[in-house]
């Protein structure tokens, strides 16, 4: 039988640590972390080197075995979960976990795909540097997964998404050949930017095995500010003001409505509101500086906020007086998602529109959804500076999880329609995976979809790389 | 005859201003500006709108007519010059010259492909902003050409190449369909980054018709420094020091050897050397600040240079005392190319290697070339901060232009071999065009070349877009 031949060959290639078909060992990796998708796999391969990945992919190509690459299994869109057919090989990149090099002078690190984000943060920190991208799943998310999904986070405002951090890339292509462009050249115009083509392609064009990433000087000082504002429009005016005043030092600018803050305060036992009164919207602002510009940072921030008061952009504001208060501010922001989960079922949408249209969009979409589905509660919060909010719709009281696939699904459909009409994206950060594939096919630009399908067919004619995802 | 049918239809589509086959009118556009390539064309089309470009390309597709897109005709690599067959249509984008929108608050401008770079600079300036990319050909180079070749320049160090400036893109594909992604979304993870695929593809995958570009706050203050250093290695140490001290304010870091400076001083009648003595290498450093960080800029630069002296990184240095002195410093740098042309024939190489290897590379390559071809003079100058130097080899005294295609060609071959062995790029800034196509095929990574050819075949199966260039 072909399948047995393939497994025998794969086993010979990878050794006992490198391949398993044991159901118990595979089980944790066959369900996505949000628990929405569960699949089956022929086996789980865990190669330890790029050469092993290449040989394995060539073997898969020869036998026609589909491959589902997986890093930390923390995709928000089911992007790393196989389908239920059981014919795919689950390809874990977690054993490729070396930081091959870290160059302090040139501020770059070459990491294998399985390096966990938090591990890179620590390594950069030890070298007196930092890696300027972080997100909730940093303890499990891997460099390979972050690159394949072009991960974002709050710092995109200043530093860009994962795409902007990648200086060099190594990936195994569908035929097992290795695309190797790890040596970063700051200028290189020898044709198409294939590195950028791979980034964000969710493993459908190639399997990222390593990358050279940029590092930045360590943060020497930060100032965290909590501001109460009258509206989301006022929040955007405040954003423009801060951007003018702080320039490149403005690191993050997050927003949340009062109802989000209330939910967090209910959820966190010992928390307190940063400001004495309630405000329609709140902004959480972080300004940071490295050693070259740390002098006078706090004074500059005080002047910035004084200017904001003078212009009537804020109603009230507090500058964190200590690092522990700064952390307390951030804890409120980071607790929005768990606080919401404690309230009951919800459908989440990770959307973006042009920054300047975001206030108008939220002010139109929230009441529209709540009116059409009585009893629901729609909240938008997140990265205003990137035009990216998490738009969540909470089920009416008393509903169970089945609501998310009934009314919830219809609501998602409507939210995606709205976003598309506003010139936005139905996936700002989390990728398409299997979760949004049908919606992308329904709402995506036909010309762009056609190019994607052509490129996919050109690079993976047999369709073996992460089938059922994205395209 | 098919050709006449095609021309009649194209003429009907574009009107009298939009199509000409007049030899005198076409002549200036059929030779590249360096005078290396001269081609022939069926006709020159000058559509005025994206819709006209789309209809014309569809017509070309129907009739199998190859298309050579052209902006300001200032390609350094013959990238916009048709071949000698005369079957191609020269497609000028120069009439697509509107700045469709400029948003001061969101700091972005939507420009058509034919907008000249200098025009964009002026428009940004009027809005109190700036477009952070410039180069020698700014008076003729167009936005479409700059995007298609991913143009660079001295400011790449801080702001990145053209690729980093493009927020949104509109392009006509080989079948005449329009890829339209002009509305910038700061976060958008709906699949492959097709915009990045088009950028730098030299018109072989699509014809750029418009783009939304980012703008930055205007420069409020700048400090220009001329430093004499003992070696290129010392220049790099100085670069690292300035990068630490000035951080994001470090805008440009150029280097040139004494022999380059001597040639410029000979060439420019009223010029004088910025420093009293000769030095093996010179660095030209620009530090700039917008309004948010202008305060104390000069003092910070003085402290930066004092630190450099203390650490023995510089032998001598002068901080320009006035804007006119700053301009005089820059004039020396900008006169290297004309001064060199005045000295006689030369072959030019626009190359990059990893920044940290550049000193070693230059110190190895210059004597190697000069020893192998006695009488030649090899000079490297340019953007050390990007690992990108212009490596020029001047002919022995008494040679005429025929030298460039005899010994000169052999030398170029050798330089490209050297760069490739050092992990570098044979085209850092200028693209491949027709000039370096054979060298790319000879020296490029076969895996990368294979992907490029597959993508090209997928998006332009008939090979009608800028044939004979790049791939």
Report how far apart the termini of chain A are: 31 Å
Based on Cα principal axes, name the global outline of chain A: globular
Most residues in contact: chain pair = A-B, 82 and 82 residues
Uncertain spans of chain A, ≥5 residues at pLDDT below 50?
none
| Strand content range of chain A | 15-25%
Share of helix among residues of chain A?
Answer: 25-40%
**Major sheet strand order of chain A:** 5-6-10-8-9
Give the mean pLDDT of chain A: 96
**What's the total number of strands of chain A?**
18
Give the oligomer, counting copies of the same chain as homo and different chains as hetero.
homodimer
Radius of gyration of chain A: 23 Å
Biggest sheet character of chain A: 5 strands, antiparallel
Counting H and I runs of at least 4 residues, what is the number of helices of chain A? 18
Class from secondary-structure proportions of chain A:
alpha+beta
Folded structure, characterized:
The structure is a homodimer of 471-residue chains. By secondary structure, chain A is α+β, with helices and mostly antiparallel strands. In chain A, 37% of the residues lie in helices and 21% in strands. Chain A has helices spanning 2-14, 23-26, 50-63, 117-126, 143-148, 156-159, 162-165, 194-198, 232-246, 258-267, 297-310, 323-334, 336-343, 358-372, 402-405, 407-421, 437-443, 446-459, and strands spanning 19-20, 43-45, 67-70, 89-92, 99-103, 108-112, 129-130, 166-172, 178-181, 207-214, 216-217, 221-229, 250-257, 281-289, 316-319, 346-352, 377-383, 388-394. In chain A, the strands form 5 sheets. Chain A has a 5-stranded antiparallel sheet. In chain A, strands 1-2-4-3 form a 4-stranded mixed sheet. A 4-stranded antiparallel sheet of chain A has the order 13-14-12-15, sandwiched between helices. In chain A, a hairpin with a 4-residue loop joins strand 5 and strand 6. Chain A is globular, with a radius of gyration of 23 Å. Chains A and B meet through strand 9, helix 8, helix 9 and helix 18 of A and strand 9, helix 8, helix 9 and helix 18 of B.
